[in-house]
Amino acid sequence: MIIKANVIPVDPNSLSVALGIVPGCGRGILARRKIAQGETIERAPVIVIPENQWSDVENSILCEYAFDWGEHDEQAAIALGYVSIYNHSYTPNAMLEQLPDELMMEIVALKDIEADEEITINYNGDPENRDPLWFTAASLRRPSKRKR
Fold first, then answer.
1. Nearest partner of 65 among 104, 123, 106, 10, judged by Cα
2. Fold of 12-121
3. Residues 4-56 pLDDT 10s
4. Domain residues of the chain, as ranges?
């Protein structure tokens, strides 16, 4: 019997971005090519964590990578792909968009991004929001209420 290997299509996310090391930040996401303002950089599925299971995640490393999810942020979500690796900036060049009906998140360019430039998002959600975040406050522990 001849078994044909499944051909895995090229991941379109990997054509636009790459995981890199950003001085002073650790891992980060870099543009592999010029990305135009308004362009979708990455589209990734999410795994939703129901509110009643949050306590199981809260004391794990996954807490640091969880996003608020749901109409009233009553749930959390872990994004697959690179979404959880983008670094924070109060002057981001991209933004995160949640697509709850599709169980997806997208990273969209807020302005033109040059090849090899780091792609950043504002963890507060709104690119204009300057509220302090858990890692900029006195406590380095993330609060129970997820802020991303």
1. 123
2. Beta-clip-like (2.170.270)
3. 555 555 666 678 898 889 988 889 999 999 999 999 999 999 999 999 998 88
4. 12-121
